[in-house]
Design goal:
Distance between the termini of chain A: 17 Å
CATH architecture of the largest domain in chain A: Orthogonal Bundle
Largest sheet of chain B: 8 strands, mixed
CATH topology of one domain in chain B: Rossmann fold
Number of strands of chain B: 25
Radius of gyration of chain A: 24 Å
Order of helices and strands of chain A: HHHHHHHHHHHH
Oligomer: heterodimer
Shape of chain B: globular
CATH superfamily of the largest domain in chain A: MetI-like
Largest interface: A-B, 29 and 38 residues
Structural class of chain A: mainly alpha
Strand order of the largest sheet of chain B: 6-7-8-3-9-10-12-11
Number of helices of chain A: 12
Chain lengths: 317, 688
Amino acid sequence: MRAYLLKRVLMTILVLILVTIYLTLLIHIVPGDPAKSLLGPRANPERIIKIRSAMNLDKPVLTQIGLALGSLLRGDLGTDLFTGRSIGELIRAALPHTLILAWTSLSLAGLIGIPLGVYSATHPDSWLDRFTAIISISFITVPSYVGGLFLLLLFAVKFQWMPSIGLGETGDVLDYLKHLILPASALAITWIGYLARLVRASLLEVLNQTYIRAEMAAGIPLRKIYYRFALKNAIIPTVAVLGLGVGNLMAGAVFVELIFTRPGMGSLIYNAIQARNYPVVRAGVLVVAFLFVAANLLADLLYTYLDPRIQLGKARG
Amino acid sequence: METPILQVLDLEVKYHTREGILTAIRNANFEIHQGEIVGFVGESGCGKSTIASAVMRLLPPNGEISSGKILLNGEDLTRLNMEQMRRYRGREMSMIFQDAMTSLNPVFSIEQQMIAAQRAHTPASRKQTDLDLCRTAIEMLDRVGIPDAAERIKAYPHQFSGGMRQRIMIAMALLCNSNLLVADEPTSALDVTLEAQILELICGLRDELGTAILYITHDLGVIAQICDRVVVMYAGNIAETGDVYRIFDQPKHPYTRALLQSHPSHRKNAHRLRTIPGVVPSLRELPAGCKFAPRCDLAQDICHEQEPAYHSVEDQSVLCHVYSPDWTGPEEVDWREPAQEILPASAIDGTDRSTGPAIIQTRDLHKHFADHAGMFSQLLGRQGGSVQAVAGVDIEVRRGETLGIVGESGSGKTTLARTILRLIDPTLGKVIVSGRDISALGTRQLQPMRAMMQMIFQDPTSSLSPRMKTSSLLIEPFRIHGIEVDEKQKVHELLTMVGLSAEQADKYPHQLSGGQARRIGIARALALEPDILLADEPTAGLDVSVAAGVLNLLKDLRDRLNLTYIIITHNLNVIGFISDRVAVMYLGRVVELADTQDLYSHPKHPYTEALMSAIPIPDPDIRAREDQIILKGEIPSPRNPPAGCPFHPRCRYAEKRCGSEIPLLRVLPDTNHQVACHFPEKVQARPI
């Protein structure tokens, strides 16, 4: 187990190094001088030189990569070229909102999608099963930015039940949650449908197993068999998908944060790209990459907890 | 007379399917008393498992008990709603299943599962803590023979062997002291020595707890060994019921007789088996009149027209026209002797076989499998161990003879076969076929050798391509070897050879029955006219009447085409029936090799002795042999074989020397008998 964790940590570091190298090179691949496009057409040449040296663009590419890796090692994310603030601070301000958004929508998807899947699997071909099949498939096909716009127009503009944009009053938890509902739902919609179908399929397979019959023969109540004994088996493939899905979720979060004008990693990176604020883009993407790798590691660890047959770090025979 | 624990009256079960309503069980009446084991026997599709499911009220959603009563201690289960029924299950009646590998939930510990099974019946008011329930569970595990139960209860199912899992399953079923235990083929997936252990356990628990047991099996031997009464089922009817001694001594129903006749055994080695023509009819196309009439050699016109009634004959109840007062057809058939054709003389005396030249020889053959270590571990310089699946085998097969290789799972018999055929490469040693060492040949040089050595695979449904018709399957070997043939004629010829009709040529594998698919597998192996045929479990998964047909076919083909066979199986009855000589394998080594009759009547190796003693023989008179040897424990992992003689930890004669010195296979003086044991003289003859 320890060897396995060590291996995964090394892999994470490797991913971060590769992302850093890629992002450093990206600046040179994108057409146009970064400093010029950052400062605009009427920029003062002295300032351009200053910015270039601040971004290390005056040094050879290999040195640039070395420097970038150096600051990665120190945990130094750099400084925002516009405001001069530390990027670490910017991310500290934005990240929690995104994490809360992502976590809320994942929980929402799980809380609705999993029971929906269990119901469909245990009542195959009932009207509710067919209904959820239609709902699920239509939910899967709705991208989060379309869903987000609809929710916004319907609940915030037409009915005015929910606030439309922003985070709400600072310090007011209730207001914060109220502002969270629509964006989280927009992000969760796709996942509700996806989880429901996934859980249904794997649960149907599990319910055919002899051990389910054996549990019925032991007189264990059906509800307990479905939600405890069968679901733990059926959820295993879902966890793997969820781990990979976090990347997908992050991409969705960018759109949702834009539509609902929420501060967060999505809007931070988006605005930075708009302004060609490369140091912020680099730091933002790095953090997202780290989150992605961490989520997958978490999913794998959850896997061993759920399925005692899997021994991490050992070849499966 | 005391009331029976279970009484089933006029039970009828129907399935609602797309093709309409099918009646799976008709007019079933039986009862089981306290402490009684009632065996249900019959081929697949006869309704044994449906009876079990109906009694547990666990029929699939499209199944329905359409009439009749199921009385458990006088309470009619068919009137209970699902919640009332749930309270009965697990407390008053429990069930164990065939496949212990899949009947325990893989992601919960034994403790969690056993507590949940008790919680289902422990009222919340009676404050029994999980700790109390766990203690009960440990006691029960102790009782069924799980060592270190208090510790092992925390483990998960995959950490136990197959035999242990079946014990756990039994412990779980008996946790709440059920009155009735429904056992659905609980030992069919186990090796013979494990089967003997589990049967001993079930009988012991019955004696101790007085549980009534409904025992389903297709194995007449098991029925004869443990049951008090027998219910023979055919096509949804109970064909015959009666006391176990009467049923085996004086079977009345023609089907019961036919089942007994088609049971293979080493005593019938010089004969063909009597088979039952045709197959069990599907529920969709049940014949009118007696359901068995189309396959019955006593059948008269009345049998095809009128449904028979139950007649009491001596102590048995028989569903057959023969016993009606109006019967005019033939009556008593001497069922023990009939129609067993004796093979040609050359096949019986074995003269030409035992002196013939060796066609296959192995010399110190080894096959080791590496334990795979991951890339990362390899980077750290860690190396995997190796598993010795075959650890030095020297055997000879003579032209025209049948060598049986028998052993339990994990003994290395399948690996040995595959290595002989060079389907896998040997690690060490030689395989000499017709005087030529094939262990070092390259792929191209091997090609012509392949045509002369063919294999019949264990599972025909997975070894036949589902997308090819029978005709293409049979022609494929010729295409592979680039041989031009008249395809139509060849297909016809091959089908006739294995006893199939020409219409089978246009079918796909899924349209064939198990026996037909097996025959296609044999025809495919025979296509290139090989000299050597290697069959891996040729009858596994087949019903006894179908298996009998396949075994007869193998014998006929051998004598007609002068083939040499190597037959691999764990079934001692099959191997005794078909082989001229038998090699017994244990942990990758041959521990004994002798002529069949000699081996069965005078085993010299303690392991063979135990195997022979564990064969379930379809004769209740020799049950409960006091001298029966039940081996303790299971085959050790080949990853970690014991030092010295591999069998010594389980051997009842083991001495100090056995723990350190590996015995070599040697010929006993003045015999053909080879044995790898330091003290073969300790094993006494015990004819069976």
